[in-house]
Amino acid sequence: MGYIMDLRRIVGTRPLIMAGACVLLCNQGSLLLQRRADNGLWGLPGGAMEPGEALTEVARRELFEETGLIANTLTLFDVFSGPELYYKYPHGDEVYNVVTAYMCSDFEGVLKEDGAEVTELRFFEWDSIPKELSPPDQPVIHAFLERYINN
């Protein structure tokens, strides 16, 4: 997040529009979630775009950095923005996220949390997703569940 950190030195904690990507990594009816180190809540692998990156590159990079897994195939799920994607981090930084969510069921590698941003990784059955979700991930996960479980 070098770009965002550079901007933060200029604007402080004021709200930024932050473009990024996340991955809904599915494995036989379960979804990979990560416990975030900053707020202790469950969320999706993902993060902010760096200058010059394509959103698919963001999704692949963040998935690998946070989980140790490599996405072989990514499929666009949806793009999320709006007031429900506003988030104030525990340390005070404010963002309005624009999140491109990708689905992935074709992946490889050894599952391993990064230890800095992620303290735990776990696959949850689609009908057993925890309620303690990180606010910016809630709309994405709820849309995923609505589309694939409730239909």
CATH class category name: Alpha Beta
Number of domains: 1
**Helix-strand topology string:** HEEEEHEEEEH
CATH architecture: Alpha-Beta Complex
Number of strands: 8
Distance between the termini: 37 Å
Q: What is the averaged pLDDT score?
A: 95
Task: Report the β-strand fraction as a percent range.
Answer: 35-45%
Structural class: alpha+beta
Number of helices: 3
Oligomer classification: single chain
CATH superfamily: Nucleoside Triphosphate Pyrophosphohydrolase
Notes on the structure:
This protein is α+β, with helices and mostly antiparallel strands. It has a single domain (2-148), classed as Alpha-Beta Complex (Nucleoside Triphosphate Pyrophosphohydrolase). The chain has helices spanning 2-11, 55-67, 138-148; strands spanning 16-25, 30-36, 42-43, 46-48, 69-80, 86-88, 94-109, 118-125. Strand 6 (86-88) and strand 7 form a beta hairpin. The longest helix is centred in the middle third of the chain and has 13 residues, at 55-67. It is globular and about 45 Å long. It starts with a helix and ends with a helix.
Write a short abstract of this structure.
The protein has helices at residues 2-11, 55-67, 138-148; strands at residues 16-25, 30-36, 42-43, 46-48, 69-80, 86-88, 94-109, 118-125. It is an alpha+beta fold and 151 residues long.
Features:
single chain, 151 residues, alpha+beta, Nucleoside Triphosphate Pyrophosphohydrolase, five-stranded mixed β-sheet, three-stranded antiparallel β-sheet, 3 helices, 23% helix, 40% strand
SSE blueprint and pairings:
Blueprint: H1 2-11, E1 16-25, E2 30-36, E3 42-43, E4 46-48, H2 55-67, E5 69-80, E6 86-88, E7 94-109, E8 118-125, H3 138-148
Parallel strand pairs: 1-7
Antiparallel strand pairs: 1-4, 2-3, 2-8, 5-7, 6-7
